[in-house]
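We were asked to recover a plausible sequence for a given structure. The inputs and outputs are reproduced exactly as logged, with field labels preserved.

PROBLEM: sequence recovery
POSITIONS: 649
GIVEN STRUCTURE:
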């Protein structure tokens, strides 16, 4: 039975029809000639700029892998899609270019020549994958066997190196360009690359020397490469030439087909309007991006800019609230969502700017802690000029108003962020706030950073002050020797150092008086201290007497203020100048009611001058004190009571 089953199965299999083997199509000479004509037509259409016609023809040539023009058709399709993607900004076209190029590499023998690597590098460049593009261009360079190929590759390498800010690569390759061998168009392309290099280095005045001639004489090159056209406008914007920048951005909007470039141009037109004081026009440009191009990164950025604008202008805020867009009705929710979804990418930094702007003016500790957390996650290497500009514009006014403890907390969360984003003036503000909260090492680092960057008198003074704050008085004096213009600040700081070094020089008094025309507590305290160090107690008192009401602040905020009060009180007591001592001490005691020593000194001076009202008041204040001076004051008070009792008898 089992044998019968196997026999039957074998017979049934034997009787199955055998599938026919698929044969490869063999093209006749006439068919090959037609294919060649079709390919030549596609190539002709490509060169004329009729890209879609060319693609239509090529689509027939890539249906069969065996036709002799299959590989060439794939490569030409890759080049056409690359061109379309570059011109329109549609990344789907660039992705298709990569697909056809890769398919080409699998379909032909020996595909890896100069043109393959150059084209692949161009695809990567337009996908903003600059490191990969650079690797491809370097391979292409090694295969360049003609001056024209070498020039095209060198220009591509320079372009990508500029995007990557790799100045070492630029220096190595730029010398390989021989201008005498270039055509007029090639010279203009090279001029643009030189402009791009200067632009990426931040040398905008130098960049414009190369970019303007290209704009004037070779605009078609910029139209074919819209990202490059945007560079011309952006360079003008960064130079503050808003009139020319507007002209370029409007021109881009009118003739360029790449919508991503158009969106960026609209955003910049809004920024220019805002800088020129036209908030309504700025709002209109931003809103145009939101309405015309929803679901794009630029639309999110435009909304963020509108929210920030509304926060600064009540009328615009009302207009936004009346719109149908729900994001304007819950701005904080929208900002937080944009921030979390885009952390450390291009959009995310704009969201961070808005979030900080909202929080810095808020009293919410929860939101402030969230901002500190978000700052700690920021990767500054990904930040661009426009991010830094926007954050600075929104945050600076708020940071100047912020409590110093909050400033310290923010700065400590990500020091590199603040060094990268803010200018010298703001860093100096951070320096003074960090000193107030006792973060002296961080303050010193700011001073050292500014000194290494600027090395002018202003930076020298700050560094000397930082050393003084760290109690490195000799080093502070050494740094001060580098000062060229010895102004008021110089003599004040030098005097303070000398006081701590026990080298007080009375000749500095006249120099301070001559240089420091503006009145200040510090000026009078330092001069007074110099008098004290030279035994002139009464002159010291007369110097500081006009600012006794301002001494409490100086005393609480500075070490030298505390030292000065202690010293002048001791010396006034020594000379029995108790009335003078009280003039200094009473304002201090009213501010510092729990300071045992100050209130004890008042009690001593009050007893010595027999001021009964003060005596009882300050006796009660120091009742719970147990310092050396409070014990002395209590003893003096008890003696005073005994003597007073004897007199009454």
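RECOVERED SEQUENCE:
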């Amino acid at each position: 039975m089992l044998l019968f089953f196997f026999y039957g199965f074998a017979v049934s299999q034997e009787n199955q029809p055998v599938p026919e083997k698929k044969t490869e199509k063999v093209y006749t000479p006439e068919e090959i000639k037609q294919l060649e004509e079709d390919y030549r037509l596609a190539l002709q259409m490509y060169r004329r700029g009729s890209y879609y016609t060319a693609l239509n023809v090529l689509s027939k040539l890539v249906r069969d892998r065996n036709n002799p023009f299959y590989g060439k058709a794939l490569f030409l399709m890759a080049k056409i899609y690359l061109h379309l993607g570059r011109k329109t900004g549609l990344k789907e076209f660039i992705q298709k270019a990569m697909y056809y190029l890769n398919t080409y590499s699998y379909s032909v023998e020996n595909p890896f020549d100069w043109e393959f690597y150059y084209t692949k590098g161009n695809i990567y460049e337009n996908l903003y994958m600059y490191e990969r593009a650079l690797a491809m261009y370097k391979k292409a360079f090694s295969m360049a066997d003609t001056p024209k190929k070498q020039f095209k590759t060198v220009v591509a390498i320079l372009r990508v190196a500029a995007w990557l800010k790799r100045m070492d690569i630029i220096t190595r390759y730029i010398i390989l360009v021989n201008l005498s061998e270039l055509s007029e168009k090639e010279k203009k392309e090279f001029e643009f690359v030189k402009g791009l290099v200067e632009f990426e280095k931040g040398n905008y005045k130098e960049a414009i020397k190369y970019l303007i001639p290209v704009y004037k004489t070779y605009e078609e090159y910029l139209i074919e490469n819209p990202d490059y056209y945007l560079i011309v406008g952006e360079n003008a914007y960064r130079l503050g030439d808003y009139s020319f920048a507007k002209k370029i951005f409007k021109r881009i909007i009118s003739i360029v087909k790449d919508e991503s470039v158009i969106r960026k141009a609209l955003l910049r037109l809004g920024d220019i309007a805002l800088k020129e004081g036209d908030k309504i026009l700025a709002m209109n440009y931003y809103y145009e991006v939101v309405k015309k191009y929803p679901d794009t990164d630029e639309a999110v950025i435009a909304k963020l800019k509108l929210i920030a604008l509304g926060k600064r202008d009540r009328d615009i805020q009302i207009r936004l609230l009346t719109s149908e867009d729900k994001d304007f009705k819950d701005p904080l929710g929208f900002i937080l969502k944009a921030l979390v979804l885009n952390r450390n990418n291009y959009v995310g930094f704009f969201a961070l700017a808005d979030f900080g702007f909202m929080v810095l003016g808020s009293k919410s500790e929860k939101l402030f802690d969230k901002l500190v957390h978000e700052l700690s996650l920021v990767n500054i290497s990904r930040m661009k000029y426009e991010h830094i500009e926007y954050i600075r514009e929104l945050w600076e006014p708020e940071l100047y108003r912020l409590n110093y403890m909050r400033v310290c907390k923010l700065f400590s969360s990500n020091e590199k962020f603040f060094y990268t984003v803010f200018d010298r003036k703001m860093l100096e503000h951070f320096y003074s706030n960090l000193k107030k909260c006792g973060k002296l090492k961080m303050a010193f680092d700011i001073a050292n950073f500014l000194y290494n960057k600027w090395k002018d008198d202003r930076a020298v003074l700050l560094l000397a002050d930082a050393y003084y704050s760290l109690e490195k008085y000799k080093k502070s004096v050494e740094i001060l020797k580098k000062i060229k213009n010895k102004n008021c600040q110089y003599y004040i700081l030098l005097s303070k150092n000398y006081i701590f070094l026990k080298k007080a020089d009375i000749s500095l008094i006249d120099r301070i008086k001559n240089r420091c025309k503006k009145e200040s507590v510090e000026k009078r305290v330092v001069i007074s201290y110099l008098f004290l160090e030279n035994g002139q107690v009464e002159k010291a008192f007369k110097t500081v007497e006009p600012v006794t009401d301002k001494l409490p602040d100086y005393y609480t905020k500075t070490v030298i203020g505390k030292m000065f009060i202690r010293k002048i009180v001791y010396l006034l007591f020594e000379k029995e100048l108790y009335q003078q001592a009280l003039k200094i001490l009473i304002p201090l005691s009213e501010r510092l009611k729990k300071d045992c020593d100050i209130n004890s000194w008042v009690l001593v001076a009050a007893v010595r001058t027999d001021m009964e009202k003060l005596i009882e008041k300050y006796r009660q204040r120091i009742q719970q004190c147990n310092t050396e001076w409070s014990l002395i004051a209590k003893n003096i008070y008890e003696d005073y009571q005994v003597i007073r009792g004897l007199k009454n008898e």
